[in-house]
Amino acid sequence: MSYLMLPATASEKYIFELLTRIVLFILVVPFIFWAVANLEGQIVHQFVPTFTHYQCSFDSLWSGLLNHGNWNGWGVLLAFQGVLFVFCAFFTGASHFAKSAFLKTLLTFLFLMAGFAFYSYLISRLLGMSGMHPANDRILTIHSKEDGVVHLAIVSTIVNVCLLAIAWFKLKEKEA
Prior knowledge:
The chain is mainly alpha-helical and 176 residues long.
């Protein structure tokens, strides 16, 4: 039986962690949520018979979500990358930090965002840019909401790929 406990390579560790922490989570959690929500609705319906809308349906949720906004290819990619960012960020944090990975990852992103906001505030105050606006009130090449969605989708894809690369190299470093 000792042959089953052979040391794994970095790629095997990475693929295992990626599949269990991201892919399996995305596939299993909606089913668990649906089962718990319906079970809870049944229990509440037993105590409060007037409670009639107790069944959870992903079909009505999905149709309501699709009817609420203008979902084209870039919007769907942005939403997918936004959700995937949460998983990639905590996957990278778990590969980087040994203890309390969730808390340390959360604090790291909080400090990064606060630092960026403080830096932007200081630069705008020091350079006296509070009254300045670019032509047509646009930023760089973003002319419309659709352009903003395209830019954010591309940037979030690049960020997710970078986070996965950081996790790969960190796991590779731990192997050596």
